[in-house]
Amino acid sequence: MSEDHQEPEPVVGILGAGRAGTAFARTMLSAGIAVDICSTRPPKALQHHLKIYAPGARPVWPAEIAERTLSQGPGIVVLAVPQEELDEVDPQWVSGTVLIDATNTWHHEPLPGWLQAAVDEQLPSSMAIAGRFGTAQVVKALNHISHHEVEQAAAPHAAHEQRRALAVAADDDDARGQVMQLVSQMGFDPVSLGPLPAGRIMEPDGPLFNRPLSRQDLLRWVR
User: Fold this and answer.
1) Which pTM was predicted?
2) What's the CA gap between 148 and 103, in Å, rounded?
3) CATH code at 60?
């Protein structure tokens, strides 16, 4: 196929350019996945930050975060902002996407009222996020590995049985499959735990959180 007729490269959007968001970006870029990323700073102000922490990522306005991933595939946006800042994220920014909830609830962190109510009812936080971002398909993933370990743990050229396993939970089968494909491209061995509520065990203090696990370790938790 000539260069003029090459398919556009797939792009993933990342909401949040902090330590987690930039770690995901670096890992994806190393695996050949293009990245659009945004933060509370304008794209021009974000450029220098990305040159240091995620070289190759393209800074965009938050309202633009889903545009290229929806037009070029796979239609995935990673939610990587602190939960205390979720009220600042307009659900319309991610409308129509597969939204990876990579956030975590920390005991010291003040939460938006709608999220605190779910936590008080002992619901998985991802269920409240799915309600808040109802025009996206929410998938719980990428939250139970430390941002310090994402890059070094990724092994895109290794056989799956030699990779670190990462859990994925979602109600929508297609959305879950798309995220599992992305996790695999990043260099991990994705394992489906089942529907979105199954993601509770991926949260802090859960049995999967921040632990290097194999596929066999995760399979015992599958619903």
Assistant:
1) 0.95
2) 15
3) 3.40.50.720
